[in-house]
Amino acid sequence: MENALARIRTSLPQMSKIATRVAEYVLAHPRDVVGMSITELADAVDASEGSVINFCRGIGLSGFQQLKLSLAQEIVQPVQFIHEDLDRDDATGTVCRKVFHSGIQALSDTLSVLDPAALAQAVETIRAARRVEIYGIGSSAPIAEDTHYRMLRIGLDARVVIDSHVQAISASRCTSDVAVLTISHSGATNETVASTRLAREAGAKTIVITNFGRSPIQAYADTVLFTMARETRFRTEAMASRIAQLCVIDALIAALALADYDRSTDALRQTFDVLSIKRF
């Protein structure tokens, strides 16, 4: 299990008071925690052993031993944290380095939290559906539109909705044979949370792509595919989060195509021929 420290940093704003105490201690003393028992850590942060276990499970780990193993791995092979915020005095070359490294780190971190079983479940949900509806608002809208294009290319019946009013109407009209894919970095955008809730209440199967940690939209998701991209002062919902979302979509489309290889290759061939008239 990789990136326990990154998981903690990403989840910290949504943690309870007790979990926050555990998190801040682990972040400040990772080497010490590796040598501690669960009782010693609980005493150090004035919490119960159960609270420590709940903290570990809240960041996607099975328990305290897995936390220690992950911390030990990071201490032996330290990760260079490159989530540096931009500074007003940064030279152009420094800006380029920080932005590119942030994208690279987001991809590495996302790979560590993306659950292959959840991706497989999303594939089966989409394959079983008569139609796929794709929702995204704001910076997630271009990702939703790209997902729509990619699904059409492999022969799926897909629709994309990026207007919040149309989303609400469309979601309320869903049926049990519809799959809804919602893309929301924060998982807390009112419009997409409401649309996902309406779709699920109407009987649709819901898939959500959102950043790692707890968020309101997860309460209405049958399947969650996590990204992990850290926001900074000047880069809220920046390209790093969209790069991570696009890579998750890429993996989803590839898995869908491979699951129905013959149909997908035929659809790709037909759409390539159609698009060829657009080229000289």
From TrEMBL:
<dbReference type="Pfam" id="PF01418">
    <property type="entry name" value="HTH_6"/>
</dbReference>
<feature type="domain" description="HTH rpiR-type">
    <location>
        <begin position="2"/>
        <end position="78"/>
    </location>
</feature>
<dbReference type="InterPro" id="IPR009057">
    <property type="entry name" value="Homeodomain-like_sf"/>
</dbReference>
<keyword id="KW-0805">Transcription regulation</keyword>
<dbReference type="InterPro" id="IPR000281">
    <property type="entry name" value="HTH_RpiR"/>
</dbReference>
<feature type="domain" description="SIS">
    <location>
        <begin position="122"/>
        <end position="262"/>
    </location>
</feature>
<dbReference type="InterPro" id="IPR047640">
    <property type="entry name" value="RpiR-like"/>
</dbReference>
<dbReference type="InterPro" id="IPR035472">
    <property type="entry name" value="RpiR-like_SIS"/>
</dbReference>
<dbReference type="InterPro" id="IPR001347">
    <property type="entry name" value="SIS_dom"/>
</dbReference>
<dbReference type="InterPro" id="IPR036388">
    <property type="entry name" value="WH-like_DNA-bd_sf"/>
</dbReference>
<protein>
    <submittedName>
        <fullName>MurR/RpiR family transcriptional regulator</fullName>
    </submittedName>
</protein>
<keyword id="KW-0238">DNA-binding</keyword>
<dbReference type="Pfam" id="PF01380">
    <property type="entry name" value="SIS"/>
</dbReference>
<dbReference type="InterPro" id="IPR046348">
    <property type="entry name" value="SIS_dom_sf"/>
</dbReference>
<keyword id="KW-0804">Transcription</keyword>
